[in-house]
Write the structure tokens for this entry.
Amino acid sequence: MLVKIYPENPNPREIQKVVDVLRSGGIVIYPTDTVYGMGCDINNIKALEKIARIKGINPKKDHLSFICHDLSHLSDYTKPLGSATFKLVKKNLPGPFTFILQANNSVPKFFKSNKKTIGLRIPDNPIIIEIIKELGNPILSTSIKDDDEILEYTTDPELIHEKYQNLVDIVIDGGNGGNEGSTIVDCTSDEEFEILRQGKGELEF
């Protein structure tokens, strides 16, 4: 199903439609402030396993991240942030960054790497933020990659729908997406931050 939602004014009825699908264990492709992502409710293990199969990833080895709707929501899933980390995160979110942080016990085991860390995002995109607010908990964040090496990410929602319509429950058309992923920042030490992948966005200190 392809659902059109306008970022300037997300229609609550369409948002609710997506939330109902997520609550029933469905998989959704959604826009962010970087590339289109594929996700599900982080508490639904069957849906998480299905995404791992679609993407060909091993949750034990691949770092998985998820999306929260604001900083207080983010802090529900992390150990207390040091003051330098909190300042960095606050200054750059919402925005095109994934922050690797120390996970607390609220994070489902499916997500925890051996290092007990978690990647967290708050994209600057009203569609996905409204969905997460209505759902009440985060959703998985994994990007849609294209098999074509020249065009690494698929940006057109209609083409995404064509490719994934038999694998997922809803593709949200929120306009054309970008083709550059988020910048990934390791914040597991409060004294030294490391950019693991430079993507969209310049980190402000």
